Amino acid sequence: MLEPAQLSDRMILEFERPIIDLEKKISELRGLSTEAVDFSSEIRKLEQKSRKLQKEIFADLTAQQKVQLARHPARPYMLDYVNLLMDDFIELHGDRSFHDDAAIIGGMAQFDEWEVLVLGHQKGRNTKDNMHRNFGMARPEGYRKATRLMRLASRYKRPIICFIDTPGAYPGLGAEERGQAEAIAKALQVMASLECPMISVVIGEGGSGGALALGVTDRILMLEFSIYSVISPEGCASILWRDPAKIGEAATQLKLTAPDLTHLGICDEIIQEAPGGAHRNAAVTAAKLRRALKQHLRELVDLPTNELVERRYQKFRKMGAFVEQPA
């Protein structure tokens, strides 16, 4: 769990600040407490006040505040969950065509009783790492690597677990020249027909086609404060209103939070995070995620292959609403 002293100003969101200030006071009192001067009573009162305040604040978060939590710089990333959940992870590299994209990581691992393929977007913790990971925005070679590894897993009937955490696919000129849209479309096509169980977990920011390219799976899980949307609130506000002041309204209208997407039939289960968000205690959040993954995998691995693929097809056919009118 992150202690208040470990959180820089950059890591503290405005609505979190009252809680962090209280925790800093508790930490200071603990440091001053001795046998001669006992502050244990005051510490207990402040801890109760902190827990109550945290519960009140996090029970009434706006959509935009959840967007901020999903992007929190201290939030656990894909490799953090791999280290907490998996054993014997072996990373596999390259798309066998152009390059190894570090924004998407994939490899074989042991999860509980299953040998699985783990795939996911990976962001960086500092400037150098973010440049290497391209801020979690994959290029075509990243999606082609993911497609290659998914086909490999399907060949050996290994379940696939995908961790989604990206602002979107990289929109640069080079990426477009190398077929960004085709690479994403191919990933969608391949995932729709793979003959192995697949689960996606949105652990932070699920943005646009870059997220969907790892999201055509049998089950879609979302962490409590993660988001999943066709466009960012900033992009939506810019296109619809041409006004950055409308970002909060855009976040609300996009219905991008986990409860919204559960209501719409897109998210299959919301995984509760540690009190205060996953960044406050990654181990607690990972333990809850482990239980959910095990439950869903047990249900999926027993299904006949034909039924598994058909259920996946029907799942996505039911999403959204449309009306057909005669020509």
What does this structure look like?
With 327 residues, the chain is an alpha/beta fold. The chain has 2 domains: 4-60; 67-317, 2-enoyl-CoA Hydratase, Chain A, domain 1 (Alpha-Beta Complex), CATH 3.90.226. The chain has 14 helices and 8 strands. Strands 1, 2, 3, 4, 5, 6, 7 and 8 form an 8-stranded mixed beta sheet that branches. β5 (198-207), α9 (208-212) and β6 form a beta-alpha-beta unit. α4 packs across α13 and α10 (233-240) crosses α11. The chain is globular. It starts with 16 loop residues before the first helix and ends in a 10-residue tail after the last helix. The mean pLDDT is 91.
CATH top level label of the largest domain: Alpha Beta
Shape: globular
- Can you tell me the CATH superfamily of the largest domain? 2-enoyl-CoA Hydratase, Chain A, domain 1
Order of helices and strands: HHHHEEEHHEHHEHEEHHHEHH
Helix/strand structural class: alpha/beta
Amino- and carboxy-terminal Cα gap: 60 Å
Main sheet: strands, sense, barrel = 8 strands, mixed
Q: How many structurally independent domains?
A: 2
Helix content: 40-55%
| Low-pLDDT runs | none
Q: Provide the β-strand percentage band.
A: 15-25%
